[in-house]
Each structure stands twice: as structure tokens, then as C-alpha cells.
Design brief:
The protein has about 220 residues and is an alpha/beta fold. The protein has six helices and eleven strands. β8 and β9 form a beta hairpin.
């Protein structure tokens, strides 16, 4: 039996392959794909690209270079397959920790990072452990890479757990970054926000934009 699935990206006509033993596209992926604002010539960096889903979303808007970074060679192979399956050639895939990547600063960084700090309850599947827990990349390290790899007028788009919003804001401020836009997402029949979508910049804005809430169904 094949270890791969063939699915579409919500709200697009894009299809991609996913591995059953690796992190797969979910509601947060789709929300981030529609939240981020990509200009026509933007160079886009996806930290933890996995199957390349966020690069595929970005490819709808930009003719600029698409760069995916992942610690797993298997993820880069899958992302390459998906990009080429969708006739995308303006890409580069880098298989190494983002902390060691040396590239020119980019216009946009997108990221669906691990949501949970390290704990004893880690998954036996290391692909999923890295996707869900801060094993290879902590929140603080991620914010450091945002600052290092963004152009001075660059912006970052990230989805995370709403319950960690204060911690995220603190990390952003420590790295001289600014929250400029955010949106909360609630699960249907839940009264507490589950996810938060964030736009982060190197340059401050006079006001922080708060988008209407989303109900995840």
C-alpha cells in the first residue's frame, strides 16, 4: 500500500502529494495560506517547508524565488515533487537547520512552526515530534531567524496557538520585530480561540490591525 496521499489545497485548484507518516496539511495551513499577503516579485522563504504546501500557496501570487528549508531530506524530496508536479521551477530547497542557512535576506518568510515546548510526551514518530514540538527550533530561535533573514522592509506570516500569544509577542519584541496584523481563529462550538495568525515586520506600524475572527469548521 502506498505511503502517499493525493489531496488539494483548500481554496485553490492546487493538488499535492503527502506522506501518511509526516505532518499533513490541516486547517491552520489553509488559514495561513490565505492570510499571508504576497506581492508579485516577492522572494518567499518557508521555514519548515515539509511538503511545500505554503510555497504552493505563495506561488499563486509571486513570480519571485520560492525557498523551502527543512531538516528532513524526505520533506525536501516531497516538496520538490509537489513543486514540479505543479509546474513551478523558480524554487530552491535547502535541507539543513534554518539556524545554519546562509542566504540573502528575503521579502517574506512564512512558517507553520511547532506549537509546543519540549515535554516528555513526545511522539514515537520523529517526523511528527519535530513538527509539533520545539525539538529542532524553539520559538525564540525562530524569531531570531525572522530578524536575521528578513529584508529591512520584509514581513513574516506565521500561525501559532493563541494560548502562546503573549509569549510570541515577548519574543518578537526581544528581537526588535513588530506585530502589525493578527487574526484569531475559533473552533466551532468553542469559546476560546485556538489559533492566531500573525503578520510580523522589521519596521513598526502606527497601529496594529485586528482582522475579524475566523470560525474553523
Amino acid at each position: 500500500m502506498s505511503n502517499e496521499m493525493y489531496n488539494y489545497l483548500h481554496g485553490t485548484n492546487i493538488y499535492l502529494y503527502q506522506r501518511k507518516d509526516m505532518f499533513r496539511v490541516n486547517t491552520d495551513t489553509s488559514l495561513l495560506g490565505h492570510f499571508m499577503k504576497i506581492r508579485q516579485q516577492d522572494t518567499v522563504l518557508d521555514i519548515g517547508t515539509n511538503n511545500g504546501a505554503l510555497l504552493l500557496y505563495a506561488s499563486q501570487y509571486t513570480k519571485g524565488k520560492l525557498i523551502g528549508v527543512d531538516v528532513f531530506a524526505e520533506a525536501c524530496v516531497l516538496a520538490k515533487k509537489n513543486l514540479e508536479h505543479n509546474q513551478i521551477s523558480n524554487y530552491e530547497l535547502i535541507c539543513q537547520p534554518i539556524q545554519t542557512v546562509m542566504i540573502d535576506p528575503v521579502d517574506v518568510i512564512v512558517c507553520n512552526p511547532p506549537y509546543f515546548p519540549l515535554s516528555e510526551n513526545l511522539n514515537d514518530n520523529y517526523f511528527l515530534t519535530v513538527a509539533r514540538h520545539e525539538v529542532e527550533l524553539s520559538l525564540k530561535e525562530l524569531c531570531q531567524q525572522f530578524y536575521r533573514l528578513l529584508k529591512e522592509d520584509g514581513r513574516c506570516y506565521m500561525v501559532h496557538r493563541a494560548s502562546r500569544l503573549q509569549e510570541i509577542k515577548n519574543c518578537i519584541q526581544q528581537e526588535n520585530l513588530y506585530l502589525t496584523r493578527f487574526q484569531l481563529a475559533y473552533d466551532e462550538k468553542k469559546t476560546v480561540a485556538i489559533s492566531v495568525l500573525l503578520e510580523i515586520r522589521k519596521q513598526s506600524a502606527p497601529l496594529i490591525e485586528c482582522e475579524p475572527i475566523i470560525i474553523r469548521r
